[in-house]
Amino acid sequence: MRNICIKIALTAVAVLALVSCAPEPIYSYPPEYVKTLVFTLEDPKTITLDNQDEVPSVSECKVNDSVTVFIPVTYPGTYITRADYYWTLKDADGKDVKKSVVEQIAPHKQKCPPMWSFGAPPTAGTYTVHFRATYNYSAQTERGEIFGGYPTSVSYEGAGTVKSVLRVR
Length: 169
Prior knowledge:
Blueprint: H1 2-20, E1 32-33, E2 38-40, E3 60-61, E4 66-70, E5 73-75, E6 80-90, E7 96-105, E8 115-119, E9 125-137, E10 147-150, E11 162-168
Parallel strand pairs: 3-11
Antiparallel strand pairs: 1-5, 2-4, 4-8, 6-7, 6-9, 9-10, 9-11
């Protein structure tokens, strides 16, 4: 009887040792952004995650100015293999003036926020820039996803974007 109790105790200790050594799961996490776009006339090479809050912003520019728009990052995310950033410049009537898709590999390792540089339109007016993003993760999220998007998912257009207004004079 004593041998059986010792064997049971040793088995219990071995099982507990194996369970306690199980590695923690690795999860991907999407980036987090400030929900507004920032326009600047600064050189895009000077914009980093460390100084993004200090970049001088503008709400208007001159015709044909070189403009950079970015979305400030509050958390860069983890285990993201690729991000596609969709940028659209629309006129006051809602028609597309310019579009761009910027691909970034391992965006969580980059030192700059998502940004797009473009020439201001040759016609004065009010324009809106829209931003959305899609992500491919290298590990699943806590909810089991292997891809995601911002603001919500990969299946939205138009109203489901982050947008800001730029006045061209």
